[in-house]
Design brief:
Radius of gyration: 25 Å
Oligomer: single chain
Strand content: 15-25%
Mean pLDDT: 96
Shape: elongated
């Protein structure tokens, strides 16, 4: 028996387009000699469809599109993920279809309701296993979260399943693939079944699905693996009661996996929403440089417009390095001097500011002028503004509302400053993209600065980024307490300061654009802190 895992990239809500995508994948698999094709979880709708599932017309259209597979698909068994409405209940389902017949429907048993998942809001849990026969083999079906616990797989095995097919929409975060494989290996050990794991690929708002579908034989060995961050069809052979070795893509190192996730997140957010291209402010600093590299790799230089907006505090080397990077990448570039505009604003505010010392107000005004210019260019061209701030800045509030936070997609929103440096170094040295060394080395090596006042450096007012990012990871991503972090050896003053800054800047993060999630806890779907709160621990 030959099985095809269709690692496809559907678009949420594009039922006609997704139906055509599944038909095309099924035909490709049939021509390749496959007996079964497996799609990802909710492949018909894209994942997650969120409140589209609350619309009766949407569910009715899903049922109609499912009927097209029953009516038109021949010569291969299709296991397709879709929502199934039954009265007032909706199930996260998979239907098995062959030559005009429905062999069975499986309803997801375990509904995740943590991290980025909110399935209890929409779905009713199923309770029964599904086992169908293909070529004399009994095949079980499970959906995503079901494989993370023992009972659904055990129920399929109890019904006689020899092979388990798992439909997944498992979003990326760092080191996620190794975790998935270990979880599936545990199910193999418990049940004795070989397991094929088909995962979604593509960007959906802040989520990035990495694909990396795989298969484990009955010994728990990975015998096949699809590429990461790309559409692919993975063909598996089931012979003599087990899955046999097939093609296996290379595992991705941490920096490459994160970089590819960011590229895919940008490409799909821009492409699926129909923007003609992107704009970004280029400062000569490392964050905007990395954002520019990602944008060009995602979209092509012809769809990227970088704008340098110097002031009297902008160092000459910042302008020089920006021009050098543009020369290497070849995207559109503009320079707009902001100081005359700044002076006009200050003249208009002179009476209101009379007798008051200069402070961050004047610094933020420069940032807001730049944000206004970028938004004006966006309105005129239709291109989306990419913001360039990183996770360390979003944690501490070192970002200006309606200034550098103005835009439609925050590429580095979940990338801490220390990781920004690692990604920039990796991008300059990799052969994974046609052009290497796109970021001038001086941008990577010089001390970071917002350049909003004379001789300004980030570390003048923040802990060292190595310390700051470690505290950030422990508190935000691992949910550790202040006391635990101090016990881990971090300076008490730094810990208290970072956590206080995190808390008082929640209102800023609530107004920030979405950005690709690459850690196990980002400032987005899985960070829902109250803005008004007096709890600090």
């Amino acid at each position: 028996m030959k099985i095809a895992l269709a690692q496809i990239n559907p678009v949420v809500g594009d039922l006609a387009g997704n139906t055509a995508l599944i038909f095309a994948a099924a035909e490709q698999a049939r021509v390749a000699g496959a007996d079964i094709i497996v799609t990802p979880e909710l492949a018909l709708t894209g994942y997650p469809p969120e409140d589209l599932l609350l619309r009766p017309s949407f569910l009715a259209e899903c049922k109609k599109k499912l009927g097209e597979f029953i009516d038109r698909l021949d010569g291969i068994t299709l296991v397709v993920g879709h929502p199934h409405a039954a009265g007032d209940e909706v199930f996260n389902a998979a239907t098995v279809i062959r030559d005009g017949n429905v062999l069975g429907r499986y309803e997801k048993m375990l509904l995740p309701n943590d991290a980025v998942f909110d399935e209890v809001r929409y779905f009713t849990p199923g309770f029964a296993p599904l086992v169908f026969e293909q070529g004399g083999t009994k095949v079980g079906v499970a959906i995503c979260e079901d494989i993370w616990d023992t009972e659904p797989a055990a129920a399929a095995a109890d019904e006689g399943a020899e092979l388990l097919l798992v439909l997944n929409a498992s979003p990326f975060h760092r080191a996620k693939e190794a975790t998935r494989q270990q979880v599936v290996r545990e199910r193999v050990e418990e049940t004795g079944m070989a397991i094929a794991y088909c995962n979604l690929v593509g960007g959906q708002d802040e989520l990035v699905f990495d694909g990396q579908s795989f298969a484990l034989n009955r010994a728990g060995d990975v015998v096949a693996q699809a590429a990461g961050f790309a559409s692919e069809q993975l063909l598996l052979d089931y012979v003599a009661g087990d899955l046999q070795a097939a093609s296996r893509a290379d595992d991705l190192a941490d920096e490459e996996a994160v970089y590819r996730a960011l590229v895919l997140g940008v490409r799909d957010y821009i492409g699926k929403n129909g923007f003609p291209g992107v704009l970004l402010g280029l400062s000569g600093g490392i964050d905007s440089a990395l954002t520019l590299a990602i944008a060009c790799d995602a979209l092509g230089a012809d769809k990227v417009h970088a704008v340098m907006m110097p002031s009297r505090y902008t160092a000459d080397i910042s302008v020089d390095d920006s021009r050098e990077m543009i020369a290497r990448l070849g995207c559109k570039y503009s320079e707009i001097e902001i100081w005359p505009m700044y002076e006009a604003f200050m003249a208009g505010l002179a009476d209101e500011f009379a007798g008051r010392d200069m402070d961050t107000t004047e610094e933020n005004l420069q940032s807001r002028i730049r944000g206004t210019l970028l938004m004006a260019l966006s309105n005129k061209s239709g291109k989306l503004v990419l913001t360039t701030g990183n996770k360390s800045e979003m944690t501490t509030g070192y970002a200006t509302l309606y200034g550098d936070m103005a835009g439609g997609f925050a590429v580095l929103k979940d990338v801490a400053k220390t990781l920004v440096y690692r990604l920039s170094t990796w991008r300059n040295r990799t052969s994974a993209y046609p052009q290497a060394s796109v970021i001038p080395e001086r941008i990577i090596t010089r001390p970071p600065s917002a350049e909003l006042r004379p001789d300004q450096k980030d570390q003048d007012s923040l802990p060292d980024y190595a310390v700051l990012d470690a505290i950030l990871a422990l508190y935000v991503e691992e949910n550790r307490s202040i006391a635990d972090i101090i016990k881990a050896g971090y300076p008490e003053a730094d810990v208290n300061r970072v956590v206080r800054l995190l808390k008082i800047n929640e209102y800023k993060r609530r107004q920030a654009p979405v950005g690709p999630r690459v850690t196990q806890r980002a400032f987005g779907k899985d960070w829902r802190m109250p803005i008004t709160s007096r709890y600090l621990a």
